[in-house]
Hints:
By secondary structure, the protein is mainly beta. It has a domain at about 90-315: Pectate Lyase C-like, CATH 2.160.20. It has 5 helices and 32 strands. The protein has helices at about 5-10, 40-50, 110-125, 135, 345-350, and strands at about 20-25, 25-30, 55, 60-65, 145, 150, 155-160, 165, 170, 185-190, 195-200, 220-225, 230-235, 245, 255, 260-265, 275, 280-290, 295-300, 310-315, 315-320, 320-325, 330-340, 345, 355-365, 375-380, 385-390, 390-395, 405-410, 415, 425-430, 435. It has a 17-stranded parallel sheet that branches. It has an 11-stranded parallel sheet with strand order 7-10-12-14-17-19-22-24-26-29-31. It has a two-stranded antiparallel ribbon with strand order 1-2. The model is unreliable at about 1-110 and about 110-125 (pLDDT under 50).
Amino acid sequence: MRTYQDAASHVARHQRAGKGSETVGRVRFARPRGSASLVIGVVLALFVLMEGPAFAAGTGARVHHPRHPVGNSTVSSASVVSTPPTSTPPTSNVGVAGAGRSTVPTGTPPMAFRASLQASSSSAAMSCKPDPAPTIAALPPGGVFHGSGCYLTSGILITRPVTIDGGVFVDPVAAKESGVPVMPIIRIKDASHVTVENVVLDGPNVTGTFHRHLVGQAGLDVLSSSHVVIRNVATNDTYGDGMTVSANFPKDDAPTSDLLVNGLTVTHAGREGMTIADAVHSTFDYVHVRSAAEDGWDFESDLNGVGSGFITVNHPETTKGIRLIEALQGPIRFNDCRCDRHVTLMGEAALSGAAVTFNGGSVFLPNADHGMPPAGITVRGPGSLTFSHVAIGRLPAFRAPTGPAWSVTAGGHLTLNDSPVVGPLGNNDGQSTVTIR
Length: 437
């Protein structure tokens, strides 16, 4: 059973303990910390300014500072819906010439496997093989491509039920604002029963910055497909999203359905970490968005009335927040989140009235906020956002928090069930409600 103290340590395992807190009702406030050395404080304050989430320039590496403390209550295990991890350790031969199949048990947090994949990417880049796209396109239904080592590709299209198991796929798309269409590294389109597992997808965007003409280069792109499995995959340095899930507009308006993602690490995505534009009845387990130019998770289709629903996200980690802005077709649930920065429910997503729920885990909000509105959690419109057994803290900083925890307006509803919050709290207008239990 996980405790709030466990949840608060997801990026602060080696940080100093806080000096205590004061509790008013169910809302917890952090006591001010003692001041640091004047010289150190001035130098570091110039670096982080008002907020604590600092990243080394061009690397996405976090500079850790003590977080303001959160509570120490017990999280009910019944509130977390997830695939229980197996005790069998993952094994992999991906990236070794002539290696056999890799085996990673479903439900295993793929940390060690991800590390071996990412290491294989850089070591194999000097001896990449020709593009395997024609070989994969020629596979019969049910066929398997057993990859090993590194492959150069300009994009792989999958339109039938096949499996890609293993390999590092490098797409060295020209880094120029050319306006020429750029393809995803792997696109699954109008297909069913496809599996992509034990692979690394590498682009050339090593800074992870936004390039408007190159955002088509997602790591993974799943369009109007069903019963797709993505297992133990890493995307690195893409110009577009780490993963995009949508319909194949304008040819096919059917949403992607029954998608299972189990183990995906996104690093240096040039746009969103994850774009869930048009998907239903799908599950995402152990998705770790390490760095992205924009949001960590973006539920947005850019089309009126088009959006996702009946989505369950288990054990996610993100450093760039979660935004729900387009129409929702059903509930969205995040379980055991290790999430930083903003949570936003607005636009058609709020108007749809579909429930958005966070169960267990932790959400660390900016210490100071300059957004519109300036708040860590925003509900704008008649949407329903609920946090149950979630530690709601603040990102590390050298000053006491100043930004409000929430803003709820235009008929919105925010509910906090046994979810202690580091203040300042927030506000709501006369049409909206904030319920703290």
